[in-house]
Amino acid sequence: MRIRSITIIFVAIIIISCKTTDSSDEIDPKILQDNKYLLSLLESWYLWNSEIDSDQNAANFESPQDLLDQVKYSQLDRWSSISDAAQFTTYYDEGTYLGYGFFYNWDDDNNVRFGYTYNNSPFGKAGIKRGYKLLKIDGVDVQTISDWSNIFGVNEIGFTQSFLIEDLDGNQAEYQISKDIVTINTVLHADTLSVGNETVGYLVFETFINPAREELDEAFGLFQSAEIDRLILDMRYNGGGQVSVATYLANYIIGQENNGQLLFKYQHNEGRTANNQVYALEKFGVLEIDELIILTTERTASASELILNGLKPLMTVTHIGVGNTYGKPVGSYGWYNLDESEVYSIISFSLVNSNDIGDYFDGIEPDFTACDDLKSPFGDTNESLFGAAIEYVATGQTSGCDLVSKLWENRLELPQEQPNPILILNQ
Q1: CATH 3.40.1780.10, domain 187-332+351-424, yes or no
Q2: Alpha helices in 95-207 (DSSP H)
Q3: pLDDT higher than threshold 50 for residue 265
Q4: Rounded to an integer, what distance in angstroms lies between the CA atom of residue 390 and that of residue 232?
Q5: Rounded-to-integer distance, Cα 427 and Cα 422, Å
Q6: What is the pTM of this model?
Q7: What integer pLDDT is reported at residue 19 of this predicted model?
Q8: What is the CATH code of the structural domain delimited by 106-183?
């Protein structure tokens, strides 16, 4: 069977239990064949192939996942993984997945609030918006939940749960909501406003997937018509996506003088230097901005960090964030297994900008800090992170945030329903 390859970068941390089977045990021939194939990929393409034991017996592992968990260079590699090929295609190429259609997190008062809902999703259609507070799930107070892993039940169309939710005015209502196919809107908010004598564009961009191009065309049509002076690019929850979409966005943002300049390059292990490549810019539209202001949190990862790191040497970029970004300066190719049911994604290269700056495993540090309070709509100047950006435009400074240290500490990790964010390098 012909083996097709795709190129992907995983962002999220995956923790899976490991098991081995003795080589003397009988192993399924397909599993053995897949294990051998994965081992060959690791030996040839893995960025840290010098750090792994090449003397491995494919029959000693119960599955390719077991093999990957045990062989990978765990000191740095948090991302090499195996994913379902069909889910990957529908999410990143078509912009759909099965679920409720929301992102949620703890706020600074230890409440669970929705950071956003997709317009065409069960939660979006129910009228639930950013800032609404989640109080109970099937009658269970969220403050009493210690294990969130299965709280949202089976992932099936029509599966229904009860949610007690409080809106921004303090009104509580119980909703019966069923899972369905969610269509993602990647632009969560796009608008312009006046700050002093300047016109400022504001774009909240959530993920780099194929359908985003049309949404970006519409947003930048608005910005070009308004002749904005500065752009606030809000990627606080953006975990990655397709590099072609990342460069598409960058091509709108850059000035004409940047046309043709290097945005980023990626570099392989010593045996694969012939595969090193560069990505150059090609100016879209007529927009010329004086400054790009990027808003981030620790969930800002992969393609979002690529935009931030790649544009910094080329134009005036100011970074306002809730601490450092996620920290993923490496990428991976992905290969289908023999029956094309899964994708093997192993870290294969590092990413650097035109000044050869990368290696941000601890994240990218912001120029100014601010809070993500989750309590106000996008575009409301009372919302802390956006408000900090407006304050910076007006004064050149921000007031900072005394909640930064507590926002992300001592919180249970809330499981998100979207697939693990990845960056796809289309060839």
Answers
A1: no
A2: 122-125
A3: yes
A4: 9
A5: 16
A6: 0.89
A7: 41
A8: 2.30.42.10
